[in-house]
Amino acid sequence: MIKLAVFDFDSTLMDGETIDFFAEALGIGDQVRAITEQAMQGELDFFESLQQRVGLLKGLDYGVVEKICHTLPYMNGARETIAQLKKRDIKVVCFSGGFRTATSYAQTILGYDADFSNILHVKEGKLTGLVGGDMMFDTSKGDMLRRLQGLFGVSEEETLVVGDGANDRSMFAHAGTRVAFCAKEILKKEANIVIETKDLTQIITKVFNEC
Length: 211
Known about the structure:
10 helices; Rossmann fold; globular; single chain; alpha/beta
């Protein structure tokens, strides 16, 4: 019986990478997108890649950041899947190597119970190129998952995790049900459920054997 479900945000609950949308606003989309792809493939250290990418955003107006975060495209089936999980009295949490501006707003739309992510440093209304927060490292999601399991008294067997990239591996190591959603090959190797189409409702079908 699953009691805790943890979702990645970028390219899982949301259809795309938040930081890539920011980069597009500065005209450096291709440059940042290439670094993001390498990080999600596990070819770059996540902390170093995050610092590098956020550094390239220095000077972006925070009003633009907020506007982008309030208009992100959510993944097909995200609302419905979270609602179905909560009907089963499952705690639903979002872990993101991305940013609180996006995940906290999305919580009001998608309905998950809590979000853990990073915070962009802002000074005089513009990004400074600095970042800090809960999800800075390759190991962060696994560390936070173990804390939540201890807080809620939930076992690994009672935990469902869903993600797509290399930095999701650490939480996959502590969950009984591991869903690789339209994922990189490096994460598929750690999963026991693989979903290849952009439809999160397949989680309900495959995990709970419902049509």
